């Protein structure tokens, strides 16, 4: 080594200049609670069961999502649509109960791909929120179905009788307290 | 109004202690901010505006942690160790001249704890006592890692103290006095332009700087607390405020080392064109000579603190730049390079004094 190298000092000053440059550099930090980073365009988050353009549930309880699910997180019970419920369910068969176990779900999106009715859908902007109890991770229809205002009556779309609106309102209000 | 000399000095000493502690407190905050900035992070910014209450939060944490005494430890010495470290760190700040003279009427106040003509010796004596705190703390823990860390700290401090003393002897040859106040005043005399000692002693300053890093156990010489080899080093077994005292003493030591460096090599409370400023104030602004002189003193004190803050920053800057030495490299640097180099520095200084180049 040359004398300059053995004296260390030039190398030390070089290192000091490098760190000093970093002192004034723009910080990479995102101050999380105040600032959030945009999600990736291919992000798959919390599931939602979509309604169609008339406000009716799209899901026909065919079970393809449950079959496609590699983690076996989806269970459902199918039922027949009664007369007068045409404004609630799109097909004659519908899901009486539809549950996704978020502890098992790996957010692979295969259910979304398997669904022939474009009903189940992984939101690109919403995470599954953290919970304290295990049973709070089982999401039923109360938390999965896209909410709709029971009193909404658009001209071309949803037509609910007052009784149906009441039933729907009760259903939506029946969410377990801890789930909020 | 007659203030007894001792009363005034007592106030100054208390203020100096308080300022030392305050600066040490905020050094812990500054260390985290500097570390974060040098690594492109943000640093503490949650406790209070800009995270300024972070030291307070740290203190609350330290005070509320469990007091732990390891089995087989010597309890009295275990408590005495951090106390000694803290006491010696604070004591050495008493002789540092933080400013020139403030004069009100016939009352003259020295902005210095104790003006003694052995100031430099006092600093050295007290600093060398500081290693007892570490040594006792490490030994009383009854832990082999702590003892190893303490032994490392002791041998490192002793070997670097030699080079430090020798590098200062060259300064003392120029100044001819041990009084820190005298050394400061010699670095600027009214009417003629005197350079700071750094110009006369560049090599001596570098040696002193390296030794100051080793004396305060800062990176790249922080072998006593090398966590990969020794867990936490000499303070492995310490918890709560006793650990806090050890860490705090390190920051007080950094403050004192920065102050000593500023005073000895960087002109202390002197600043360029101070006499020109005073004369201009008196001549053109109708200030009385006393008021102008007091203003110069206050400005000088502020600038001295500026120099001190720069050195504290420098300590942190180096810490987050350089990796630590291996222990044998550290010892070789101390004994085979720095000590001979400081002796050569003494010879060169003596030669230059004889030749009349510097005085």
TrEMBL record, chain B:
One of its GO terms (biological process) is aerobic respiration. Keywords: Cell membrane, Membrane, NAD, Oxidoreductase, Quinone, Translocase, Transmembrane, Transmembrane helix, Ubiquinone. GO terms for cellular component: plasma membrane. It is found in: Cell membrane; Membrane. It is a multi-pass membrane protein. Its EC number is 7.1.1.-. One of its GO terms (molecular function) is NADH dehydrogenase activity. It is an enzyme of class 7 (translocase). The chain crosses the membrane at residues 6-29, 77-99, 119-141, 162-181, 193-214, 251-275, 295-318, 330-358. It catalyses: a quinone + NADH + 5 H(+)(in) = a quinol + NAD(+) + 4 H(+)(out). The keyword Oxidoreductase applies. InterPro entries: NADH_UbQ_OxRdtase_su1/FPO (IPR001694), NADH_UbQ_OxRdtase_su1_CS (IPR018086). NDH-1 is composed of 14 different subunits. Subunits NuoA, H, J, K, L, M, N constitute the membrane sector of the complex. Belongs to the complex I subunit 1 family. NDH-1 shuttles electrons from NADH, via FMN and iron-sulfur (Fe-S) centers, to quinones in the respiratory chain. The immediate electron acceptor for the enzyme in this species is believed to be ubiquinone. Couples the redox reaction to proton translocation (for every two electrons transferred, four hydrogen ions are translocated across the cytoplasmic membrane), and thus conserves the redox energy in a proton gradient. This subunit may bind ubiquinone. This is NADH-quinone oxidoreductase subunit H. It comes from Hymenobacter jejuensis. The lineage of its organism: Bacteria, Pseudomonadati, Bacteroidota, Cytophagia, Cytophagales. The gene is nuoH.
């Amino acid at each position: 080594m040359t004398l300059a190298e053995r004296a260390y000092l030039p190398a030390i000053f070089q290192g000091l200049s490098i760190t000093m440059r970093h002192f004034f550099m723009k910080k990479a930090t995102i101050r999380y609670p105040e600032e959030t980073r945009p999600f990736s365009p291919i992000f798959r988050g919390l599931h939602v069961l979509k309604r169609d353009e008339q406000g009716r549930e799209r899901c026909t309880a065919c079970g393809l999502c449950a079959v496609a699910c590699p983690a076996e997180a989806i269970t459902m019970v199918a039922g027949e649509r009664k007369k007068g419920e045409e404004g609630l369910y799109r097909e004659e068969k519908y899901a009486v109960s539809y549950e996704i176990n978020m502890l098992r779900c790996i957010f692979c999106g295969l259910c979304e791909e398997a669904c022939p009715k474009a009903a189940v859908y992984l939101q690109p902007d919403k995470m599954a929120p953290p919970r304290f109890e295990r049973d709070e991770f089982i999401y039923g229809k109360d938390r999965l179905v896209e909410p709709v205002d029971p009193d909404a009556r658009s001209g071309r779309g949803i037509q609910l009788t007052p009784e149906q609106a009441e039933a729907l309102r009760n259903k939506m209000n029946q969410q377990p307290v801890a789930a909020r | 109004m007659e203030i007894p000399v001792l009363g005034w000095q007592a106030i100054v000493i208390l203020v100096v202690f308080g300022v030392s502690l305050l600066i040490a407190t905020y050094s812990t905050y500054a260390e985290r901010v500097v570390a974060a900035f040098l690594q492109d992070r943000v640093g503490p910014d949650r406790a209070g505006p800009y995270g300024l209450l972070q030291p307070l939060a740290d203190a609350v944490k330290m005070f509320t942690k469990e007091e732990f005494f390891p089995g087989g430890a010597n309890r009295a010495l275990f408590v005495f160790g951090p106390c000694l470290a803290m006491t010696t760190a604070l004591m050495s700040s008493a002789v540092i001249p933080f400013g020139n003279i403030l004069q009100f009427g016939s009352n003259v106040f020295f902005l210095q704890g104790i003006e003694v003509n052995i100031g430099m010796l006092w600093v050295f004596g007290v600093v060398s006592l500081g290693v007892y705190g570490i040594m006792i703390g490490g030994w009383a823990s009854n832990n082999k890692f702590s003892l190893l860390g303490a032994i490392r700290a002791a041998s490192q401090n002793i070997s670097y103290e030699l080079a430090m003393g020798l590098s200062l002897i060259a300064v003392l040859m120029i100044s001819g006095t041990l009084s820190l106040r005298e050394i400061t005043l010699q670095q600027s005399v009214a009417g003629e332009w005197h350079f700071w000692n750094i110009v006369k002693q560049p090599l001596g300053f570098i040696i002193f700087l390296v030794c100051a890093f080793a004396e305060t156990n800062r990176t790249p010489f922080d072998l006593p607390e090398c966590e990969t080899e020794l867990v936490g080093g000499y303070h492995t077994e310490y918890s709560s405020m006793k650990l806090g005292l050890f860490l705090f003493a390190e920051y007080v030591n950094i403050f004192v080392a920065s102050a000593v460096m500023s005073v000895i090599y960087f002109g202390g409370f002197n600043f360029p064109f101070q006499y020109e400023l005073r004369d201009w104030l008196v001549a053109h602004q109708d200030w009385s000579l006393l008021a102008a002189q007091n203003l110069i003193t206050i400005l000088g004190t502020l600038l001295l603190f500026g120099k001190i803050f720069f050195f504290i920053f420098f300590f942190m800057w180096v810490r987050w730049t350089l990796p630590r030495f291996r222990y044998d490299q550290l010892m070789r640097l101390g004994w085979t390079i720095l000590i001979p180099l400081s002796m050569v520095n003494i010879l060169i200084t003596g030669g230059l004094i004889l030749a009349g180049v510097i005085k």
